[in-house]
Amino acid sequence: MIEVKHLCKSFDDKQVLFDINAVFEKGKQNLIIGQSGSGKTVLLKCLVGLFQPEEGQVLFNDRDFTAMNEKQKKNVRKEIGMLFQGGALFDSMSVMQNVMFPLQMFSDMSKAEQITRANFCIDRVGLEDAHSKLPAEISGGMQKRAAIARAIALNPKYLFCDEPNSGLDPKTGVVIDKLIEEITQEFQITTIINTHDMNSVLEHGDYINYIYKGKLWWKGDKTNFLATDNPELQDFIYSTEILKRLKPSR
Amino acid sequence: MQFFFNFGRYLVLMKKAFGRPLNFRYFLRQLVAEIDAIGLNSLGIVAIISVFIGAVLVIQAGYQMQNPLIPAYTLGYGVRESIILEFAPTIVSLILAGKIGSSIASQIGTMRITEQIDALDIMGVNSASFLIFPKIIAGLLSFPFLVLISMMIGITGGYLAAVLWGISSSANFIAGLEYWFVPFEIVYAIIKATFYSFLIVSISSYYGYYAKGGAVDVGRASTKAVVYASVAILLSNLILTKLILG
Ligand SMILES: Nc1ncnc2c1ncn2[C@@H]1O[C@H](COP(=O)(O)OP(=O)(O)OP(=O)(O)O)[C@@H](O)[C@H]1O
Ligand SMILES: [Mg+2]
Predict the structure, then answer these.
(1) Region at A87 (left for phi over 0; alpha for psi -120 to 50; beta for the rest)
(2) pLDDT in tens, A84-123
(3) How many CB atoms lie within 10 A of CB A54?
(4) CA B163, CA B156: separation in Å to the nearest integer?
(5) Given an 8 Å threshold on Cβ–Cβ distance, is B119 in contact with A88?
(6) CB within 6 Å of ligand 1 — which residues?
(7) Which residue of B has its CA nearest to A84?
(8) ipTM score of the complex?
(9) Whole-number Å distance between alpha carbons of B242 and B131
(10) Domain covering A1-79+159-165+177-250: architecture
(11) Are B156 and B170 in contact, with CB atoms under 8 Å apart?
């Protein structure tokens, strides 16, 4: 479980996040949704420590990440997997080498165990045929899957995904969403997903946090999401004609 | 103001870059790859430049020394001195600043804007040390050899030009090469080159590491890397020469 308390973040004079309070639960897909520029990526990067918030705390199972020194942070980082918006695979390494990398750096497995584990992760995301390919030689969807394989190599307790299906066709997007959902449940991971894809929100969101102009505007689960009477959230959900037809009438 | 900001951030980055590698065997593999990229891969350009500059030096100096009062060995002596003291360490480093500097800055810059550096940081890998340290060590190990090779090839080029075009006799040229030879000058050249290699690698890594934006910005970062590395070489050349020889 991850808890965020009173988190604020600014760049220079511009405040991007205002007093965010949220709880992200284990074994669930916790969604952060909101318009482009609302601060989703900044929030995610604050959570994992790539940005230092001015105020507030981030607790990983009651351990205050923001108050830790570098060494303690390192220990928490080993429990974190992150899927970046662009995949962020190391482009000089093959898929196999990418997945092996965290194992080589942080596990005390033998070489043979590392290879077994890497193979398991690669097979798990369905990339059996791409072991020796370089990231530039595989498609965008395959890159995302390879990045997932790398993110789960060390059996993370926490998985962060920044727009996992952006830039993909709807069908491949669904495959990625499903994969993340299965992995979350299978390994009981605390998963946090940034998205503005309504399809993934409706299909895969367990808990939904709506960010509006840097403030956590609404939170709740799927059932009361569509029925919300929050005007800004309604505006966000029913932004297209197709979705407007889903609007419950009352 | 901007200068102090960059210089301060550069120092902080260098402190991070000298962090201990997480996995020593992995580090050794990276080191070998970087020696290949920085050292072996530069051999060709160093050889070509050296042989031509050596030859041109001889032709020019020969032209200026047509006066019969100047002793015949002066040509070989003069060419040896300019190659060892200035050409091999400084000019070769300036050229390598262009070749190596732009490649390092664009490589690290691309990793920055495609979030590969963030990915390293998230995992808990010290990205500065992981990316920069092997390059620095590879530079320190490669440059002395590149400079020695440049000296040998440059002098050979000069010798060939002198003999082939009849600017000097082989015996006179060799007598000049041996005349008043101070081995320390070679040490001096190696010290300079080693220092320059650090400047090239660290400055270009800095501009790559803090690149932001897109492809255009990576290009800009790599241009900056080359310009500032070259300026740093010229400035420190002045200072080192004054300190060691002055
Ligand atoms: N490194 C930074 N320096 C300064 N400002 C930043 C930085 N990163 C983000 N911002 C600003 O913070 C705000 C929120 O950006 P953020 O990237 O979090 O949006 P987002 O919700 O992820 O949008 P998208 O859906 O388009 O990815 C933007 O106004 C952006 O300009
Ligand atoms: Mg974003």
Answers:
(1) left
(2) 988 899 999 999 999 999 999 998 899 999 999 999 999 9
(3) 12
(4) 11
(5) yes
(6) A 11, 16, 34, 36-42, 196
(7) B115
(8) 0.89
(9) 34
(10) 3-Layer(aba) Sandwich (3.40)
(11) no
